[in-house]
């Protein structure tokens, strides 16, 4: 029995993949503060590849970087022109869609990651969006997913940055990902993946914290935690602003 267990343990250890390459990476900043003057930020992602043995020469290394914002359900509506008026005709609720998504790669994404590993690791933006299990009365759910991607690409929230990762001597790499001004507060999951022949060989993950600070943080907390006080305060400010503008206008007329 002891000999049998030894043989089985050896077979199991032999079946485990050997990690010949490992990512050692860092970010220029792990925290982004949203203030009244915030116009966006740029994150430098850099690192190196740690190896236990020389790399294979016939299978080039590729690097893929994914930055993903907080996900939330969203309803996508389709508009059609009826009697000369654009109206909502169909709607589909997506189970989850990231508020921000950027994919940077050292080569074209189709060359860097195979379809199978894209399904396994959810790398492309299409794989990051989760469709509801039962999309009733929807003939083509992917049409709504494509529409969401197209809209958020125009607003700079979804980005495909192919061949933007600089890779030197199959060891050192770096890339820059621009974060727009209309960021959603939360944790931004950042992944760095090494691939060979389209297969992911190593993965490193860290987090970028995006948070409102100062007066913006105080107003945000007040609106969500004490909505009654926030509403009354907004009303008082609006009345005071109207009275101040009226008084200034009367003073100008008198002069």
Structure, explained:
The protein is α+β, with helices and mostly antiparallel strands. The protein folds into 2 domains: 18-212, Immunoglobulin-like, CATH 2.60.40; 213-255. It contains 7 helices and 13 strands. It has a 6-stranded mixed sheet with strand order 2-13-12-4-7-9. Strands 1-3-11-10 form a 4-stranded antiparallel sheet, with no helix packed on it. Strands 5-6-8 form a 3-stranded antiparallel sheet, with helices on one face. β5 and β6 (85-98) form a beta hairpin. α6 (215-225) crosses α7. It is extended, with a radius of gyration of 26 Å. 21% of the residues are buried. Mean pLDDT is 82; it is low at 4-8 and 10-18.
Q: What characteristics describe this protein?
A:
single chain, Immunoglobulin-like, 7 helices, 255 residues, 4-stranded antiparallel sheet, 6-stranded mixed sheet, 2 domains, 13 strands, alpha+beta
Give the N-terminus to C-terminus distance in angstroms.
Answer: 106 Å
- How much of the sequence lies in strands comes to 35-45%
Give the overall pLDDT as a whole number.
82
Shape: extended
- Helical content (DSSP H or I, runs of 4+): 25-40%
Strands across the major sheet, in which order? 2-13-12-4-7-9
Structural class, from helix and strand content?
alpha+beta
Please give the CATH class of the largest domain: Mainly Beta
Number of helices: 7
Largest sheet: 6 strands, mixed
Q: Tally the beta strands.
A: 13
Looking at the structure, the CATH topology of the largest domain is: Immunoglobulin-like
Architecture of the largest domain in CATH? Answer: Sandwich
SSE succession: HEEEEEEEHHHEHEEEEEHH
Catalogue the unreliable spans. 4-8, 10-18
